[in-house]
User: Fold ATP-binding cassette domain-containing protein from Profundibacter amoris.
Amino acid sequence: MLKVSNLTRLMIGPVSFDVGAGECVAITGPSGTGKSVLLRAIVDLDPNDGQVQAGGVIRADVPAPDWRKTVAMLPAESGWWLDHVAPHFQAPDRIRGQLSLVGLPETAMEWEVARLSTGEKHRLALLRCLEGGPKVLLLDEPTAALDHDTTLQIEALLKQQLGKGTAILIVTHDAAQAKRLAHRILRLEDGQLQQVAA
Ligand SMILES: Nc1ncnc2c1ncn2[C@@H]1O[C@H](COP(=O)(O)OP(=O)(O)OP(=O)(O)O)[C@@H](O)[C@H]1O
Assistant:
């Protein structure tokens, strides 16, 4: 589903790897090694070299906004540019019914952004990422701000996505989470990816 070939950006690469439909690959590695830089390069937020394809779409052939409909990224810090939650979604009424999947009440759609906790922002941003039905999800420490039970709830949602055939590349420092979710674990160190576990 996701095919990365000879990608280079700053201290990374060239790296090549695939993530299949319905497959979850975890990226681990020391702090500052370039895990977020790698995700940002794949989603084409920063200049980089190499070829990236997703679901048969070649990144170089489509405008960036179309690419990001196919490959959606949840950054470590999500962006919020309006005062309230609802207008950040394309179809807030439809998403309202999904808030319980991330442990939030339906009223959260009406909340002011200024009151959101870090974990609430993360959970809402994940629903926002999923709204467009991306084929590939890039997740940068999606549960870093969450308690254990909510983390498991988010993981259940991610497993549902995997069941639908979404490919997931997740950066996590949580070895137990990588074990629970990932089919393969890659470690990024010195600019290169090494498979560390099946
Ligand atoms: N635009 C940029 N220009 C130059 N250096 C950058 C840029 N963005 C990030 N870096 C540097 O690249 C390195 C890797 O950053 P990155 O955020 O990818 O680390 P990480 O592996 O995700 O770390 P952590 O686990 O702490 O989140 C850091 O030293 C960072 O300062």
Notes: The chain has a mean pLDDT of 96. The radius of gyration is 16 Å.
